[in-house]
Amino acid sequence: MLRHFLKMSLSVAVILALLCHQLPFSACQDSGDDEQTYAFEPEERFLDIFPLTGENFTESVLKSSDAWIVIFHSGQMKKSWKSMAVNLRGVVWVGMVDTPSEADLLENMKYKVNHDPEARVYPHGPLSLKKKSWVNAKNPNEARLLAVDSISDSSLKIKGKNLQEFLVDCFMSKPSRFPLILLTDETDTPVLYKAISHRFKRYFNAARIVRPTLDDYKFLGMEDSFFDIPLLFVLLPEIKEKKTKETQDMGFSAVVFETKKMGDLNYPNILRYLFGVNNSYRHTLPGENQSNLQEVAEMLDIVNIESKRFEVEKPKSRPGTDDNNIKFTMSKTVRDEL
């Protein structure tokens, strides 16, 4: 029987604190497209809109597998672009090019100032796709739709009866991957879940059960419990010994993302949740969990990526205290994406 742990212990050897600076209120308001604001406020640029130059454009945009929206400006930017960038945090990267100072970059991009639209979308995918499949966008809504639609769905659509096969796939991976499951009533995969699936695919195998039935709940061991949907959780193995150590029976418990305790299902909160699960429970995974490798135990490749978006700190560990927890301090409210 699957047991549900609604409290998650996040004690870890290494602490990550992702601190998100507060955006000025004016930057987050929806407004008419004609209203302009300066594009260079440091806290806005750090969080959601990244300066692109001839030196970093290829590495940041073209060589990234993520979708990018590139905005062209001459010192001022419409508020609607900033609002779009905030709402796409964690899903699509947004960059800006200062047209007066980046003439060489604009020439290489074949962008014509005062002729081409304000933005360009580089789709999710490899460098070869980005070079030939970028699309101009006239406004934030068009840019958002083009970028979001380019993100492929790497999550698996399963039913409860497929659970065993799904778990085998998780634990046969190298390193072993956590079974990450989303219960949802939505037929289409939420774009945030698509982004999470891609970002964490090395460590988490993402699946979704659409409009779960009673049979699905029975296979999950959840038929006697009630949860609001959408529900995000990770399955953890529990090995129970029977008579001899050679004979073992494996059951599962669940670490549930509790919105009452962890907040809305948005990108920063899900980051905190997944880092906590990996640091606390990786050593329990069957197969080659590689919990002895620092890169895997701390998901350092993801830390390197997210350090562009957040400040990543490693506070001094205090043995014997409860302070050795992953901490994500968000001072800005981001809407529920799932």
TrEMBL record:
Comp. bias (Basic and acidic residues): 313-325
Keyword line: Signal
Keyword Signal: yes
Signal peptide stretch: 1-28
Statement: the UniProt record of this protein carries the keyword NADP: no
Transmembrane segments: none
Region annotation (Disordered) ranges: 313-338
Protein name, UniProt field: Uncharacterized protein
